[in-house]
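Sequence design from tokenized structure. All designs in this work follow the same two-part layout: the structure record, then the generated sequence. An example of the structure record is given first.
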């Protein structure tokens, strides 16, 4: 029973850490996707990839935030050294970033077609796509990081 409660607590902390990281990622994506195209117009469509720099920069900030929240609140240190653990975390995160970029493109080009107006906030197609990609990749991240990065 104690093990089950600890597991549920870990999942809850992972969700909270993920939510905070997502706020950093989504907020910085919003900022980057408004500013970068002013200086690099190809950011809007670079070889049929929408907002590549905004996605990479915001995802990087989200990854760094998630790493520190993960080691402080979610996972216990595994059998790896801190250096190896960080390396594994980054490798998993880079792969997750590529998957997230791919999902963003699919959502942006194929799934979300209209803005969603909640009266207090309008979710643009790009924001809907970013949020959906984050949610999809989060499940994969938890499983992989728990099994391979922090428990070795």
């Amino acid at each position: 029973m104690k093990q089950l409660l600890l597991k549920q607590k870990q999942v809850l902390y992972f969700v909270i850490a993920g939510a905070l990281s997502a706020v950093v990622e989504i907020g910085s994506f919003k900022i980057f996707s408004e500013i970068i195209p002013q200086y690099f117009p190809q950011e809007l469509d670079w070889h049929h990839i929408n907002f590549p720099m905004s996605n990479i920069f915001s995802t990087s900030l989200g990854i760094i935030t998630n790493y520190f929240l993960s080691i402080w609140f979610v996972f216990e240190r595994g059998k790896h050294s801190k250096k190896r653990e960080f390396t594994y975390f980054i490798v998993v995160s880079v792969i997750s970033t590529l998957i997230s970029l791919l999902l963003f493109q699919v959502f942006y080009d194929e799934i979300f077609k209209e803005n969603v107006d909640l009266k207090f906030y309008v979710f643009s197609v790009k924001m809907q796509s970013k949020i959906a990609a984050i949610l999809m990749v989060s499940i994969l991240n938890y499983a992989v990081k728990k099994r391979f990065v922090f428990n070795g």
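Helices lie at 2-39, 52-74, 82-111, 125-149. We note this feature because it recurs in several other targets discussed in the main text.
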